[in-house]
Structures are given as structure tokens and as C-alpha cells.
Design goal:
With 223 residues, the protein is of the alpha+beta class. The protein has helices at 11-22, 39-44, 65-75, 86-122, 128-151, 162-176, 186-196, 202-206; strands spanning 2-6, 27-31, 52-54, 61-63. The chain folds into 2 domains: 2-75, Glutaredoxin (3-Layer(aba) Sandwich); 86-206, Up-down Bundle (Glutathione S-transferase Yfyf (Class Pi), Chain A, domain 2). Helix content is 54%, strand content 7%. Strand 1, helix 1 and strand 2 (27-31) form a beta-alpha-beta unit. The termini are far apart.
Length: 223
């Protein structure tokens, strides 16, 4: 069984967990606190970031959510997530990068620092200005998702793809931290409800972090 070194509120770890569940690949979860920079973990990934996936018996080591996703999409036929024509695959990769890079940098990472790391690691109070700005920008990203879903059945086109699971992984972290206002985003809310209803999503929604409690709607499909 593959061993996944991950952190529960890391959106990249969540992305890999969703991917592996959709492809029917069993994994053993190992909780890693990246900020501790444990020697054995840094030996596997000098960047000290989750996720890291280790093959049974200490063989292949895969680092980073996108290399892991590409590896299993190339080697496991079940549930292809980067599919279609070259142009369609390019759009899936473009939007996957949008969420992994832009949404993470502008919204997810600041929220994790202010609402999680300061509380769990440095025991500081959050910067309310940073929180407000991250939430404002997060609303802009929901506007963009609304636009995409106005014109497509799924985020990157007519079929469910890696872009959907990547977006859902990041939004699930933001939602856990209570920083999403769904009221004026019906298109994205309806899409996210469908994503939450998938069996691959249920384990994520059932987990809880110590001291950080999600809003009541977090694990409800009909929210």
C-alpha cells in the first residue's frame, strides 16, 4: 500500500487523496507537520512540503500534488482526469495551475497562516486585515468559478476532470476555515455540493483539526 505523508488541511494533500480515492488506490495516511521539518521527511523532500507519496517497500517516491496526479493518470486507466484533445488537456492543466498557484497564493495560504498556523504553531492572534483581504479575493475567485460554470458543465469543460478536484480541494480548506460566503454564488455552490457528495470526498469532510472547528454547514451536502 502506498504511504501518503500529508497534512489534513493542506489542499495539495487533499487533492492527492481525492485523486487516489477516485482511482481506487488504497493509501496509508501519515500525518506530517511540515513546519517541524522532521529529518526523515526532509530527506524525502528537501522542500519540506506535503504531500509526499512513498511506494511500498521504499521504492518510488513522488513529491508534489501535480507530479503525483500526472503519474497516476498515466499509469492507472480508471477514472482518467486529464483527458480529451490536446487543447482540452491544456485547459485542464491551465485551471489546475490556477487553483494550485493563484488561488492558493492569494487566498488559501494567507488564511492557513492567520487562522491555523498562528493558532497551532506560534500562538499569535490573526491579522484581521489579512483575513478580510483574503476573503475579498476569495469572493473574486468564486465569481470566476461562477463564470466558468455558467458556460460549462464542469470547470474545464464537458467532463469531470482534475481541475474540478483541485478546485474542490482548495475550497474545502477555505470552507473549513469559515472564509467562504456562498450566498451569491449559486453556480459554484451547486457544483461544490455535487463534489461533496462523491464518496471520495466523505473522509475529508469527516475529519476535524484540534482546536479549529469548521462552520456547521462544512460537511453537509445540502448547505
Amino acid at each position: 500500500m502506498w504511504q501518503l505523508l500529508q497534512f489534513p488541511l493542506c489542499p495539495f494533500s487533499r487533492k492527492v487523496r481525492l485523486l487516489m480515492a477516485e482511482k481506487g488506490i488504497a493509501i496509508e495516511l501519515v500525518r506530517e507537520h511540515p513546519w517541524e521539518r522532521r529529518d526523515e521527511f526532509v530527506d524525502l523532500n528537501p522542500a519540506g512540503e506535503t504531500p509526499v507519496l512513498v511506494e511500498p517497500g521504499g521504492g518510488t517516491v513522488l513529491i508534489g500534488s501535480q507530479p503525483i496526479a500526472e503519474f497516476f493518470d498515466e499509469t492507472v486507466d480508471r477514472m482518467p482526469l486529464i483527458h480529451g484533445t490536446a487543447a482540452q488537456r491544456g485547459e485542464i492543466r491551465r485551471l489546475t495551475a490556477w487553483f494550485d498557484e493563484k488561488l492558493f497564493r492569494e487566498v488559501v495560504e494567507p488564511l492557513m497562516v492567520e487562522r491555523m498556523r498562528k493558532r497551532l504553531v506560534s500562538h499569535e492572534s490573526p491579522d484581521t486585515r489579512m483575513l478580510r483581504e483574503a476573503m475579498r479575493i476569495g469572493n473574486n475567485h468564486l465569481d470566476y468559478l461562477d463564470y466558468l460554470l455558467d458556460h460549462r458543465r464542469w470547470i474545464a469543460g464537458a467532463s469531470l476532470s482534475l481541475a474540478d478536484f483541485t478546485a474542490a480541494a482548495h475550497l474545502s480548506v477555505i470552507d473549513y476555515l469559515g472564509a467562504l460566503d456562498w450566498r451569491s454564488h449559486k453556480q459554484t455552490k451547486d457544483w461544490y455540493a455535487v463534489m461533496k457528495s462523491r464518496p471520495s470526498f466523505r473522509p475529508l469532510l469527516s475529519e476535524r483539526m484540534e482546536v479549529i472547528v469548521p462552520p456547521p454547514h462544512y460537511d453537509k451536502v445540502d448547505f
